[in-house]
Amino acid sequence: MPGSRVVLGVGGGVAAYKAAELARSLMEEGCRVQVVMTGAAMEFVRPLTFAALTANKVITGLFNQSSGEEMLASAVEHIAVAQENDLLAVAPATADLLAKFAHGIAGDFLTTLYLAFQGPVLLAPAMNTAMWEHPATRANLATLTKRGHSVVGPGSGLLACGTTGPGRLAEVEIITAEALRLLRPVRDLEGETVLVTAGPTREPIDPVRFISNRSSGKMGYALAEAAANRGAQVILISGPVDLAPPPGVSLIRVQTAAEMYQAVMTALPKATIVIKAAAVADYHVANVPSQKVKKSATRYSLDLEPAQDILAEIGRRKTSQLVVGFAAETQNLVAEARRKLESKNCDMVVGNLVSAAGIGFESDENEVLLVLRTGEPVQLPRAPKRRIAGQILDQVLRLRLALHTPA
Ligand code: CTP
């Protein structure tokens, strides 16, 4: 992909020399390649080979630099390299590297870079057949695939150790093709208009006070960003949050559930997909006083009346839109999510256990259960909200196919 930036991690194996061909092949496709070698890799190939091929300095991957300054520079550099590159490709990925990646052991530049890198990861393993087939390697590989990494090969054939079997680094053309696939932006939501609601609402008690909830808006904003990146027109209707709007989305800011209701109903006819991630108030104060309420020694009660259920109204009005609701629960997640799916006429409900530590409200991670109109529930394991957002959108598209709803 012209202009793409690839960081190529080279592990210590006989196949390390083939990584040089891979670097050249990626460059021929227009990629800018930054090579990172492990200490073991340098026993097989000299860094100079890669430096000459890529016209770029090679990171030789050790933290045991001679001076403290050099150590600090290299410790900071892995973050910069992680942020600058679009793809991390590791070839050959040795059994040792697979184990370290799987368990988050970060003792050198490449393994530390792996932890800091947030984009797609391609692993091209190469090792002796017995090592490849060892249960430890199989388990590490299962962990890495489950994490969403792409594993290419290994191929079968005569290995350096003299045996024949699986363990050879995959062909350079195959690794390159997979790298290009991972670098290609996915535009599978082109033509869709996605309406996302996010954040809490604020229901005034008087001119200076309000009732609200702990929603940060992060999940809704991640969904809006992911949908826009995948080519959709995105209308984001947001309650008050402390987040920058994702690039390319039309943002409508609201405060109260009533304002959100109006904004959603106005935008609804344009939408093909509706995602109601907002934590909307169920009640608002009846007859909000126009002046600040003064304290007194007596008890003070709020007279609350039910707010309109926006999602339920979408469910009533929907024509061809695919509607995704959220269910924030502290118990009975599956049953509650299913009940909301039916009662609000949704196609999917994203169930969220908001009582669990480290996920849900305010946090950067989430772990959700998708209850679908058709098929079994899908559990999405704990992951950053951005990744969860992508997986929810994948499921929305799958559901659309299953329901044969035209866009
Ligand atoms: N919702 C809405 N309008 C409301 C309340 C909720 O559109 N006034 C939507 C939320 O955006 C979410 C879904 O309904 O997509 C479920 O919200 P949740 O707070 O989990 O459930 P409630 O319907 O409020 O039910 P309960 O309070 O019984 O859990």
Question: Gist?
Answer:
The protein is of the alpha/beta class and 407 residues long. Helices cover 37% and strands 24% of the residues.
Tell me what you see in this structure.
The protein is an alpha/beta fold and 407 residues long. It folds into 2 domains: 5-183, Flavin prenyltransferase-like (Rossmann fold, 3-Layer(aba) Sandwich); 193-403, 3-Layer(aba) Sandwich (Rossmann fold). α10 crosses α14 (385-403). The protein has helices at residues 16-28, 41-44, 47-54, 68-84, 95-103, 109-116, 129-133, 135-146, 172-183, 218-229, 257-267, 310-317, 333-343, 385-403, and strands spanning 5-10, 32-37, 87-93, 121-125, 150-151, 155-158, 164-168, 193-198, 203-206, 209-211, 233-238, 250-253, 273-276, 283-285, 304-306, 322-329, 348-353, 365-372, 378-384. The chain starts with a strand and ends with a helix. The protein contains 14 helices and 19 strands. It is 37% helix and 24% strand. Bound molecules: cytidine-5'-triphosphate (CTP). Cytidine-5'-triphosphate binds at residues 257, 276, 278, 280, 282, 307, 309-311, 325-328, 340.
